Amino acid sequence: MKIDFRTALLIGTATVAGFASMAQAQDADIPPAQPGNGPASSFEIVVTAQKRAERLQDVPVSVTALSGADLRQQGITRAEDLATTVPNLQLNPTVGDGAPVFSLRGITMTDFSLSQSGPVATYYDEVYKGNFAIFGVAMYDLERVEVLRGPQGTLYGKNTTGGAINLISRKPDFTTGGTLTLGYGKYDHIEANGAVQTAIGDVVAARLAFTFERADGWFRNRAPGQPDLNDKRQYAIRATIVTRPSDNFEFTLRASTSLQNPHLYGILGTPLENGVGGGVYAMFGGQDYFREGLGRRELEVSFTPRRRARTYAIAGTAEWALNDNLALTSVTSYDDGELRFGEDGDGSPLAVSTNIYEGTTKQFTQDLRLSSTWDSPLQFLVGAYYSREKIFNTTTVAFYTDVDVNGDGTVDSQDCIDGGGFIACNFTNSFDQLKKSYAAYADLSYDLTDQLSLRGGIRFTRDTGDITKFIGQIIGVDGIPIMNVIPGSTTDLFATTDARFRESNVSGKVGVDYKPDGDTLIYLTASRGYRGNSFNAQAFFAPEELNVTEPETLDALEAGAKTQWFNGLLQVNGAAFLYNYKNQQSLEIEPLTSVQRLVNVPKSRLYGAELEIAARPVDNLRLTGGVGLLHTSVRRGTLQGVNLKGNKLPTAPAVSLSAAADWTIPVGDAFELLLHLDGNHTSSQYSELLNSPLVKRRALTLLNGRITARTIDTKTSIAFWMKNITNEYYFNSRLDATGLGFVYNHIGDPRTFGVSITRDF
After folding, report:
1. How far are the Cα atoms of 294, 300, 343, 641 from residue 351, in angstroms, in the given order?
2. Considering only 87-101, 274-288, 308-322, 386-400, which range has the smallest mean pLDDT?
3. Residue 19 has pLDDT above 60, yes or no
4. CA angle (436, 442, 445) in 5-degree steps
5. Rounded distance between C-alpha atoms, residue 715 and residue 208, angstroms
6. pLDDT tens digits for 225-273?
7. DSSP type of residue 647
8. How confident is the model at residue 53 (pLDDT cuts 50, 70, 90)?
């Protein structure tokens, strides 16, 4: 692994910090940090990763937590940004901002259709957000974020193989006040976010939070009259009402909406030997494209539609202490989302590859849990879960729709026929999908002694899925249907077909914890994760593409330790794991024909470790850092007739490092400066299971910084920030489009900087 001076600086900082990316949330006795406050002096962290309020150091799970103050200091405003600070967490943004595909310890998905749900679950105030269309704008006015690694199922409503990302928003605390932040930055970046809250009598409190963001695109578009791409245009509003009619009952109602409406991300199509177009244009008397005369963050495209992502959500959480021994929790939610966007898939003025995606999702979930609250060696939690997800999805992929195949001066359906059913053709599909999940789960722990505890859990899941009215057609540029591809009728151009699955599963975990003293926890856990069947929504070219994959399972063994030293001034947490991954669901794309199949890779093995440390060597200095180590290998499987044995899994770098330093400097009696520097490094990684060097992503180091001046009472602050300080140029997603003459690339954000002012009242 090549290490330059930035990597060396990062490693050095991480070594001083103890290699950690430990976040800090608030201690139960410490008031929640308000916007504008810096890091608290304590490293005590309270999380609800196991559905109970517990110190992070007492939780026998590999989990990283980030407080609201941490999120602000590191400039984390998108879920995608979490990958910069959490060891062994990576991101693939192939579907664009606001639709993150996470990879946690190498567990991810490669099917980016709008009807899929990934193996790393995202929860928003305990509500599972499984589909891209309902995620929306989420990273604002948060109390904390928790990232749990490994299979989750005996404590969570939805079962997942890879882990869970919990976003916890702030609740009103029966006081009156608020906060407002205004900011301006490069590319005319304007942001405003804040919240107000108040008590309404003695038993009701309300909080209203919002965020607004606009910015010009940084991907310069040289096409005349066309906008620059990768801009920002979004807002979100969330209202929260808490009712406490008695000491033993609390009900929280949350309602939110968000809208994203930017010009879409730009695609950089790196030309191959015959140029973008693969020689097709030269074949018909034109010219293929070679990106001549353009900078690395420039393109020239005329297809620049806006991306529209609209979400509505409402959720109610009831917490009832039945008596001194039992507590009942109910989480009920409804989500309605719409996601539409078009993509110039080749990043050129030609129409080599054009894609249009549209999906709507309506989701209802109900999670009901009964947990023990007694003072006893035995503690338990039992729950029942139901979810219903209804999706409509339609997608169009088009190839060479500007090629006049027959030379008659017009591009129409006859050109598609004369082009062999590929050149000058639109391939479109649409369908309705209904998925239901029913589950019952239980989690128990028993203290054999004051130092030794046993844990166990079990889950039963029943998943059903129906895909109806599925139709795949070839349509001419003029909108005339040419062929029914799926189901493949020769007599009815509008024939449809259906598919379904029914699957039951039992999974669970066992573990043992040892606490030799109040500052040390050692744990060992064996668990099994389960991810249900999936339909192939990327079926366009042949009837056999519309298939149902087998469920995937993950057998995990994890050993970890959590320790504190020097009266809590140093925390050292670590975990090592071994995964046996069976039937991984993977999208198989044929580069020469673009035929896409959803298949199972029978067996893979993953192992690695994370080490997280937080240190406060002096009162005004806080150092954190982390390291993730990962080895992945396919043990058995083939794609496109190629034996995958020994290949690495995609989006799974062998090394990931992160580090941060926060230094508070008093300035006179009324002000103080907060200096923050953070960085992260990831080693090279493959983009797909075939491990093609053509689309391999190189090692990357990113640095970010923030300088904040604030009053001693912390009510007013002004911050100067910069991201990607060294202006690194990098790809954060790549695909092999050899048959079309290029490599498909998403480019990471360039250097950005700005200023923000915060006032608490």
Report:
1. 18, 12, 11, 30
2. 87-101
3. no
4. 155
5. 19
6. 999 999 999 999 999 999 999 999 999 999 999 999 999 899 999 999 9
7. P
8. confident
- Region of 651 (left: φ > 0; alpha: ψ -120 to 50; beta: rest) is left
Find tokens 């995990």 and name the residue: 556
- Separation of alpha carbons 137 and 485, rounded Å: 37
The whole-angstrom distance between residue 398's C-alpha and the CA centroid of its chain comes to 28
Q: Which two tokens stand for residue 317?
A: 């959480």
Peptide bond into 377 cis (omega under 30): no
DSSP 519: T
132 three-class SS: helix
- Alpha helices per DSSP H over 315-473: 413-418
CA distances from 637 to 63, 276, 644, 652 (A): 31, 32, 5, 18
- Provide the percentage of residues in the chain whose pLDDT is more than 70: 93
pLDDT over threshold 60, residue 32: no
Measured distance CA(320)–CA(248) in Å, rounded: 6
Distance, in Å, from the CA atom of 233 to the CA atom of 227, rounded to the nearest integer, reads 13
Residue with tokens 């989006």: 651
β-pair partners for 242: 205, 252
**Token pair for 369:** 């849990």
Both tokens of 386, joined, read 């139901």
Instruction: Classify burial at 411, counting beta carbons within 10 Å of its beta carbon; exposed 0-12, middle 13-18, buried 19 or more.
Output: buried
Is the pLDDT assigned to residue 38 strictly greater than 60? no
The b/e string for 241-256 (b: 16+ C-beta within 10 A; e otherwise) is bbbbeeeeebbbbbeb
In terms of Cβ atoms closer than 10 Å to its own Cβ (0-12, 13-18, 19+), residue 203 is middle
For 477-519, strand residue ranges (E) read: 481-486, 497-517
Task: Kindly indicate whether the domain formed by 5-760 is annotated with CATH number 2.40.170.20.
Answer: yes
Question: Which residues, at least 6 apart from 736, have a Cβ–Cβ distance to it below 8 Å?
Answer: 589, 591, 687, 688, 690, 692, 694, 695, 743, 744
CB atoms within 10 A of CB 501: 18
- Total count of residues recorded for the chain: 761
Using alpha carbons, list the distances in angstroms from residue 459 to 155, 503, 509.
Answer: 9, 14, 9
| CA–CA gap between residue 575 and residue 561 (Å, rounded) | 6
* Residue 684, Cβ density class (10 Å: 0-12 exposed, 13-18 middle, ≥19 buried): middle
| Helix (H), strand (E) at residue 626 | strand 621-636
User: What's the DSSP call for residue 13?
Assistant: H
- Residue 335, pLDDT > 80, answer yes
The token duo for 441 is: 């789960």
Residue 30 has pLDDT above 50, yes or no: no
Q: How many CB atoms lie within 10 A of CB 357?
A: 21
Rounded CA-CA distance 200/189 in Å is: 36
Instruction: State the average pLDDT over residues 685-692.
Output: 94
Q: Which residue would you say has higher pLDDT here, 681 or 33?
A: 681
- Bridge-partner residues for 239, per DSSP? 208, 255
Q: What is the DSSP letter of 532?
A: -
Q: Are strands 298-299 and 220-221 parallel, antiparallel or unpaired?
A: parallel
The type of residue at 640 is Q
Place of tokens 């999208």: 587
Compute the distance between CA of residue 177 and CA of residue 172 in angstroms, rounded to an integer: 10
Q: Which range among 78-82, 109-113, 555-559 shows the weakest confidence by mean pLDDT?
A: 109-113
Q: Is 725 left (phi over 0), alpha (psi -120 to 50) or beta?
A: alpha
Q: How many CA atoms lie within 13 A of 201 on its CB side?
A: 7
